[in-house]
Backbone:
């Protein structure tokens, strides 16, 4: 009896490994990990914004409307509940993208304000925040591109024969990816290069 069970287990193991089940698992985990990094980098940006707003506000109190726009956009982005299930829900991912795109736009308007205040551009705190923001925007771009690639690889895998049969049996479907429209908006990162202190632009 033990030999029979051992044989059955061996047959099942060979069948599962040969039908792409393990590949689906690896790709699925890869997508989840890539998505976590995207979310982490967007959160890092969100964490920088309050200090950035306060620093700019110290030099440009009259720019109240811009501060409000940034604060509200950050709040809306933070209200989007991020869950692993979002990866299988195009509408939820679209909402996330829209909120992040709106925040990018508001942040860009804030940084345009800085051009009007030369003394702000040479402030130590602002320069440190500028460097952190620039680095974070770069990391967002890298993380987002990795996620896009991992989703593309996963989606191709679960559509291929005979893996598509395994995916259908176990309920694995293609995952949502960044849409062209929102990808274009999000890729337009806020410009944070204000030159060196005292440098004329």
Residues:
């Amino acid at each position: 009896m033990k030999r029979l069970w051992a044989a059955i287990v061996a047959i099942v193991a060979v069948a599962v490994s040969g039908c792409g089940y393990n590949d689906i698992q690896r790709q699925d985990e890869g997508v989840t990990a890539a998505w976590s990094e995207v979310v982490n980098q967007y959160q890092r940006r969100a964490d920088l914004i309050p200090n950035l707003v306060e620093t700019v506000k110290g030099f440009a109190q009259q720019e109240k409307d811009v501060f409000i726009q940034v604060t509200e956009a950050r709040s809306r982005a933070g209200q989007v509940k991020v869950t692993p299930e979002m990866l299988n829900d195009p509408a939820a991912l679209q909402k996330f993208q829209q909120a992040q795109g709106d925040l990018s736009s508001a942040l860009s308007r804030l940084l345009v304000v800085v051009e009007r205040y030369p003394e702000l551009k040479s402030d130590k705190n602002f320069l440190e925040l500028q460097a952190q923001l620039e680095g974070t925007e770069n990391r967002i771009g890298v993380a987002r591109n990795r996620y896009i690639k991992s989703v593309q690889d996963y989606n191709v895998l679960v559509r291929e024969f005979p893996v598509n049969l395994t995916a259908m049996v176990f309920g694995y479907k293609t995952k949502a990816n960044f849409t062209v429209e929102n990808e274009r908006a999000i890729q337009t990162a806020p410009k944070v290069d204000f030159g060196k202190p005292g440098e004329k632009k």
Q: What stands out?
A: The mean pLDDT is 83. Residues 2-187 form a domain with the de novo design (two linked rop proteins) fold (CATH 1.20.1440.20).
